[in-house]
Amino acid sequence: MQQWPFKLDQFIILNLALGGTMGGTINDAIFNNPVIMKVDYVRVYQRK
After folding, report:
1. In sequence order, what E strands does 1-48 have?
2. How is residue 38 annotated by DSSP?
3. d(Cα 21, Cα 24) in Å, to the nearest integer?
4. Measured between alpha carbons, how far is 12 from 7 in angstroms, rounded to an integer?
5. Contact, 37 vs 14, CB < 8 A?
6. How many angstroms separate the CA atoms of 44 and 5, rounded?
7. pLDDT by residue, tens only, the chain of 48 residues
8. What pLDDT score was predicted for residue 1?
9. What is the distance between the terminal CA atoms of the chain, rounded to a whole angstrom?
């Protein structure tokens, strides 16, 4: 009998990387106020 794979908790790590040279410089003053990252939905694909 095959078991249902989604009985256990599942986690997806969403990384909000800031900085580097590709996007330009980051103004640190934006962190003086609370910063909120809102995610509407996440789509997960599986390779066949």
Report:
1. none
2. -
3. 5
4. 16
5. yes
6. 15
7. 677 777 777 788 888 777 777 777 777 887 888 878 888 988 888 888
8. 64
9. 23
